[in-house]
Amino acid sequence: MKKYHFLKTILDHLVWVSLGLAGIYWVLDSVVESLILKQDVLEALIHPAPHELRERFFIIISSILFTVVIRHLVSERTRALKALQEKERSLSTLMRNLQGMAYRCRLDGKRIMEYLSDGCHTLTGYAPEELIAREGPSLDDLVHPEDREIVRGKRQAMAHDSKHFDLRYRIITASGETRWVWEQGQEFLSPD
C-alpha cells in the first residue's frame, strides 16, 4: 500500500516537473532559435512563431495527459487494493468468530488441506498448520476407523450428485478423544 502512495506522490510531482521542463524547453528553444536567426531573445520569448506555439502547447498537454492517465491508473489500483484488503479483513474476522471449523481441501485421495480456520484446534486438538502440512495427518486420517469408508463413500456420492454434502461421523482428536462432528460442504472445481 505504501508503494502505491509513494508512486501517487511521485506522479503528483511529475505533473509540475513536466510543466517546468516544458517551460524550460520553451525558453531554451526560443533562445537557441533567436541566436541562430540573430533575433532579439526577449522578442522571441514574448512573441514566438505560431508553429512554435503549437509544438510547445502539444508538449505541455502531452505531459499533463500522460501524468494524469498514469495517476488515474495508480489510483484505481490503490482503490482495488484497499477493497481487497477490507474483504480479507472481513473474511478473517468472520472465520475467527465461527463456531466450529471451516476448511478448503483438494479433491484428491487424502484431501490435502489448503485452508483451515482457527476453530480447527478447538475441534480436533491440532493447530491448522499441523493439518495443512503434508507431513501431518490429513483430515481423513482423523475420521474414526469404523466410519472412514462410509464417510468417504457418502462424500463422493453426494459431491458427484449435488455437489453439496451433509455428513455426521466421529473423529479421533489429537488427545485420542472420540468426538462427533457434523460436516457440510460443497464441491468447487478450480479452473486449473
Structural class: alpha+beta
Number of domains: 2
* Count of individual beta strands: 4
Strands of the biggest beta sheet: in what spatial order? 1-2
What is the H/E order? HHHEEHHHHEE
Uncertain residue segments: none
Average pLDDT number: 76
The main sheet comes to:
2 strands, antiparallel
Count the DSSP helices: 7
Q: How many angstroms separate the termini? A: 29 Å
C-alpha geometry: rod-shaped
Helix content: 55-70%
State Rg: 33 Å
Strand proportion, as a percent range, falls in 5-15%
Task: Explain the overall architecture.
By secondary structure, the protein is of the alpha+beta class. It folds into two domains: 2-96; 103-186, 2-Layer Sandwich (Beta-Lactamase), CATH 3.30.450.20. The protein is 61% helix and 13% strand. The protein has seven helices and four strands; from the N terminus they run H-H-H-E-E-H-H-H-H-E-E. It has a two-stranded antiparallel sheet. Helix 1 runs antiparallel to helix 3. It is rod-shaped. The protein starts with a helix and ends in a 6-residue tail after the last strand. 8% of the residues are buried. The model has no long low-confidence stretch (mean pLDDT 76).
Quickly describe the structure.
This protein has seven helices and four strands.
Secondary structure layout:
Elements: H1 2-37, H2 41-46, H3 50-96, E1 103-105, E2 113-116, H4 119-124, H5 128-132, H6 139-142, H7 148-161, E3 164-172, E4 178-186
Helix pairs in contact: 1-3
Describe the structure using short key phrases.
alpha+beta; 7 helices; 13% strand; 192 residues; two-stranded antiparallel ribbon
